[in-house]
Each structure stands twice: as C-alpha cells, then as structure tokens.
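Entry type: protein chain
Record version: 2
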Amino acid sequence: MARYDEIFSINSDAEFEREALRLFRYQAEHCAPYAEYLRLIGVDVSMVDRVESIPMLPIELFKSHKIYCGEDDPQMVFTSSATTGMVQSRHYVEDLELYERSFTEAFRQFYGDPKECSIYALLPSYLEREGSSLVYMAERLIAHSGGGGFYLNDYEKLLSDMSRDYNPKILLGVTYALLDLAENYAPHLDHTVVMETGGMKGRRKELPKSELHKMLCSAFGVEKIHSEYGMAELMSQAYSFGDGIFRTPRWMRVLVRDVNNPFARLSDGRRGGLDIIDLANRSSCAFIATQDVGIRYEDGSFRIEGRISQSDIRGCNLLVQS
C-alpha cells in the first residue's frame, strides 16, 4: 500500500467511518488541546462509536493553542489571513507530502489532471503575506499544469497571456480581484473556468453570492462561477461547479450542528453551523467546528450562507476562555 492510501483510497461511507473513528481515538489521546477539550465537555472516548457522535474542536482554538500531534517537528506552519489587529490561526503540518497529495487528488477528482489545463492565479492579498496554504496549493498545481502562473495586480498581462493560451483554462481568483477585473476590463473568457475564493478581505463591500456571481458571469461571458472552499486549518478543499453548492472529496465530510447547542446534530436541509471532518488533518485535528453557517443536503453536498457571530456561539468556547 502506498503512503496515505488509507485516506485517499476511501470509497464508501463504511470505509470513511472506520478511518474517522480510528483517527478520532488517536487524536483524542495524542493531540493535547483536543484531549483537554474532550475532558472538559465530559466525553468518554470509548463510548464514541459513530461519526455523528465525534465532538468537534472549535476552530478558534487554532488561534490560541498549538493543535498538533505529529511525531516529528512540523515541516510547515500555515497561517490564516487576518486584518490588522486580528490573531491568525496556525496550522502545523508535519508532512507537506500529505498536503500536496490531498489537494492534487481533490483537484483530479473534480477537474481532472492539472497537466491537461492552464491555471492562472489572481491572488494578490495572499501573495502579499507569508504562510498561505492557498498560495502553496496554487503554486504546486501551476507547476504541474500545462501553463499559467501568478499575477499580482497586472491584469493586462494576465488577459494578454490568457488570450494566447489555447489550453482549457482555470482562472483562480480572490473574489475582490475578480470583481476588479470584471469592472475594469469585462473580458470575454473563452474555454475558461472562473473560480472564486477568499471573499473581499476587507477591500470591498461584501455582496450576496448570487449577485456577485451574476456580475462575474455577465462580465466574463461564462455560464457559472465555480468556487473553492478551503481554509488554513484544513488540508483539503471542497469545490462548487456553480450555484453555491459545494462537494467534498471522498475523505472529507460536512455535518451541521445547532448554533445554540453545538453538541446537537441537525438533519439534512436544516440551517446551522458547519462541522468538517478532514481525514487529511492527521497531525493536527481532523474534527473541526467552523464559524460558517450553512445547509447540508442528502447527497452530502452543502451550501454556505454566512458566518456565526460570536454572540451566537454557545458552549464551544471552554478552552478559549481557559
């Protein structure tokens, strides 16, 4: 068996559940902040026998604690983007090979072999800081693609290079930069998937996704705007082919919790806080309660509908306050 095949060969719910429970028991013992959180909420690890019962670690603990259970020193520390005065999350990664395999396998699952297309990255706010997992991912995918590259703020060179490229293309851009490109140039992009990620980053007023995507579709001459859902605290990404519906790779699952009772699961179709299980998070914590609000559907896909305000969080901040 090749390295990490126990994660990336998962092909059924039963296989996912078996690997998730095995990893839960390991991290409940070896990830000290997670073990302490489980103790504080009174969880008997031996009694957890199904995925839906695994307690999720509040994502804000990545800002205040070292969430790590690797056997060796980490090879990389990824940090979240943050405006002035905000504390960044820190994700300690023991093995970059695992991260690279995770984002490459996910890309292939949804878009095919990267060498069959050109990838153009318009990620100014990420390139302007260190520790971005998105830049690391884009850099490696571009290196294995048929063309493309990074573009900071040089929109004219980006459009010129894309116009001479006859490969199928993916334009991966932070949302505010794509909107700037659309408003200032309105280029018709042939044979191109436009993929947005990252939001406005405080550079522009936030817009409803439906309104934003309508503007981008009109400017770029495409039918749908794709999206990438990832974060510094995760080793894996979900993708949307349009309409705001995201799908996860086989080793990742999304569950929904009651925002007023983080230990209560909600059924498919109900709106609540998003919990993520990412089995590629082997050296940190694979079980994360995010601050995103959304809906999960019966087929496992999900939609994001906003963020949870701090005043809405109940019972998830035991370690944050300690």
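Comment: The radius of gyration is 20 Å.
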